[in-house]
Amino acid sequence: MKIGRAETKDLPDIERLLEQVCKVHADLRPDLFIAGNRKYTEEELSVILKDDSRPIFAAYDDDGSFMGYCFTAAEEHKGFNEPPHKTLYIDDLCVDENIRGRHVGRALYEYVRNWAKANGFYNLTLHVWENNESAKSFYNAMGMKIQLYGMEEVL
Ligand SMILES: CC(C)(COP(=O)(O)OP(=O)(O)OC[C@H]1O[C@@H](n2cnc3c(N)ncnc32)[C@H](O)[C@@H]1OP(=O)(O)O)[C@@H](O)C(=O)NCCC(=O)NCCS
Asked: What domains can be seen in the chain, in order of their start residue?
């Protein structure tokens, strides 16, 4: 397996996996997500792929086939009430549905963690939907801890 920055050639695979994630979310919250759609348009993805403050990392099999991605976004914290620090936000992480459970997610996460450490980030953060039990178990297995709770009342 090889992991590195995703490239424009990966666009079709990234779009395919974005649809898989959207389906996972739509199955959990059909009131909030539309199955068959994806989070970003092709135009938005083309911009993100070139943005060094929002690196997308990708895992490839030895034959070059696309296995999964991790979207990230660098955040600078320098508010009046906080010590200055950088956070790497994991915006989206997905392994192709045909090869889940084979430690591709772990390899991607560990690569991103090492990259963040080497680039002076203080922490990694992300949001995960309640009831996405497999993702919660995965992040727990990676050593992540709950930082805060997002609350909601549907009206
Ligand atoms: C979550 C996801 C990225 C994990 O990737 P993966 O390659 O399947 O996971 P790994 O094989 O690296 O699993 C690493 C560890 O996480 C835990 N884990 C992974 N999937 C799990 C599941 N379905 N149920 C329980 N634990 C799980 C296990 O502890 C596992 O270690 P083990 O195999 O030695 O027991 C992948 O399942 C996925 O793409 N899911 C759909 C998209 C999604 O929900 N993404 C998160 C959005 S926030």
From this structure: 2-141 (3.40.630.30)
